[in-house]
């Protein structure tokens, strides 16, 4: 069971197991060929009178249909998953064939794999992410379900595997509703599917389920481990950083938990964007050893500033969707794809910060940010109009937030956990988000909490003022505002620098979004119409001048690095299914505004304006 949570009822929302750093454990990667079958009427979960599907309609049945029909030629099997078309997972079904482009519903995947379960060992199936709902069957029996398209989960299958060949079937349902997180309408492509790797992981009977280590504000190294298994209670644990000669050790309590700390060694080099030092860390208990690469740094807010390792920092960032470069992108982020995107920020834009919008990105991305030295904003898809008054929706959001934080608590790059994006103020919404903020602090009090908020526009005697008075600000460490003056508002671009910004709170502000669409290559000399590169470049110049007049501004992540797929964006000439606010096109061509921001960032420090 994972770490502390505010109250006992909430603890039930935590995942049964974390299996932290699952990709660093021994196991079998189930990536590769899987059979797939589309199921628009959800026939595989209910028959035509709503009854449980008979064996011949179960996509998950543990059966060799071909062999069955040889035995009994009159048997009617309308399905045969083993001879269904083959695709490669992880991927979104958009890649399977052209008819799947806008499919929103249930799809089944199946493959067989070899296992050699040994006594005294445990087996888990670990899923990086399945978008949006998943039902998992092993050898014909349901072993678990999961809701939420972007966070990992693990199911124990000890005792459920055969020696030799086994079968796994995943029912993936991408359909969302007003009650899901996110709800139906967003501004990005859903990319339903098994979008991240599936692994069969083997552990000893008692193993390290969760572990973290960090540098505290007081300059000490604090570490924690949670063991799971029959001999967890009272078991010795040890954390080692060989390069620093540091060892912390102790004994797990009756719940299998241990937390300890020690003075940070003098030789410790702190992680920063300029020097992203990572150390090999080993979490050890009995025969179980979990290794990871982890950086150490401190983070705090003082007045209106954000301090990294005790020094003020201006977050020179950009927002990013999880979508690789290319004409037909999906969300299958490989290390090479993550490196290509993040290097464009680090080297091309002279950035030090990335907002991973609007949902938890692949672990590949946060690990790459650790390695390259980019500060990360991580968020959950509590986006626009969520069913804030509905307790079940709150439970889903809390679980998702916990899964995200538990996955990434060891990433030095992550500085901000964001709980929401552009959610209109109301009593139920304030209560919902207050609960999420409290959860973040309980799960990880070493990072800053934020949310992308909306402003109120005040206009008096021709002077425009953007007022930040969202009641949620009182709960946050860092205020964040998405602002589109000059794009969605009719403001003239020349008027932007004179816009004033006001907040009653003494806290740092991040402009978490601003942006304008431009079709790469649409040059419109002189006229600067919307959608031209010149308009976007001028929009950036004027918005940056406005930003420079905000005394409490501590960073920005304009919208967005790359043009991204969005079914909402159907302007027939400029968009064609793409949100064009990228500073680079989908294939990586830099638009004029890229140079404007890169130039600004090359000079921007916490004190320059
Ligand atoms: C926003 C949203 C973002 C959209 C963007 C836009 O405020 O947070 O998801 O894609 O605006 O382009 O309108």
Automatic annotation (TrEMBL):
Domain spans labelled Glycosyl hydrolases family 2 sugar binding: 77-204
One BP annotation, GO: glucuronoside catabolic process
InterPro entries per record: Beta-gal/glucu_dom_sf, Galactose-bd-like_sf, GH, Glyco_hydro_2, Glyco_hydro_2_AS, Glyco_hydro_2_cat, Glyco_hydro_2_N, Ig-like_fold
Molecular-function GO terms, alphabetical: beta-glucuronidase activity; carbohydrate binding
Keywords in alphabetical order: Glycosidase, Hydrolase
EC number per UniProt: 3.2.1.31
Domain Glycoside hydrolase family 2 immunoglobulin-like beta-sandwich: 206-297
Gene3D superfamilies from the UniProt entry: Galactose-binding domain-like, Glycosidases, Immunoglobulins
Limits of the Glycoside hydrolase family 2 catalytic domain: 300-539
Catalytic EC class: hydrolase
Family named by the database record: Belongs to the glycosyl hydrolase 2 family.
Protein name stated in the entry: Beta-glucuronidase
